[in-house]
Amino acid sequence: MRLSMRRAGVVTVTAAALLSGSGWAAQASQAGTAQADTARASQADTTHAVFVQTNDPSGNSIVAFRRNADGTLTPAATYATGGKGGRTSGSASDPLASQGSLVLDTAAGLLLSVNAGSDSVSVFGVKGDKLHLRQVVSSGGPFPVSIAVHGGLAYVLDAGLTGDVRGYRIADGELEPIPGSTRSLGLSNSNPPFFLASPAQVGFTPSGTPGRDDEDQRVGGCLFGELRRPALGPASEGSGGGCSFRLRV
């Protein structure tokens, strides 16, 4: 698993994931001028859809759009997440200061959304451009901003106060907290956190890739074990132009 933090600059970031051979694709993005996160799902020979998270502090919701053959979008429906959106302190245009707050798990057919203002995660079943709210579960800490999924696991990043990550098993369309999986990041943030001090993303490193990511995955596999829990603490690494660190699992 990889977790990143940014210290300076307002940026626009986009993350994408593609599952080859199954007809499913997923994409999540966060634009510097939009107070929403977007996930796109398409299935062969069925409806193509775009899902947008409103991140409304008074009541978060997911807006579903039908994607037409010419690339235009048609509004389909709006689904309440059962939680509230949130805003980092000092944020002008990027309220969650994060990436991955709305994630499509193609293997499980689920859409996962953080509710930063109510410290929870919503789990939706996905069928074409239609959603069904299956669960609202605690994120385990204050101000969740990012979710990563891989191999039947989900990890949630909480950015408030000391910051932490918490693991879940994905089973029967719901998230089951993994006992003993919560790890503190040792930060000294407020809640909500300050925009430039907020950890931005949690993610798994790809397997089979040469270089540092491959090394992290190999080391992580040794530390992960049968209990599917992360290492006891983060491994800090500097990066050019910012500050980032990895949590090896």
User: What characterizes the major β-sheet?
Assistant: 6 strands, antiparallel
End-to-end separation in angstroms reads 6 Å
In terms of DSSP E residues, the strand content is over 45%
The domain count comes to 1
State the oligomer: single chain
The class by helix and strand makeup works out as mainly beta
Q: Which stretches are poorly predicted, pLDDT < 50 over at least 5 residues?
A: 4-35, 42-46, 208-228, 238-249
What does the average pLDDT come to? 74
The shape, in one word, is globular
Radius of gyration over all CA atoms, rounded: 17 Å
User: What is the chain-wise order of helices and strands?
Assistant: EEEEEEEEEEEEEEEEEHEE
Total count of strands: 19
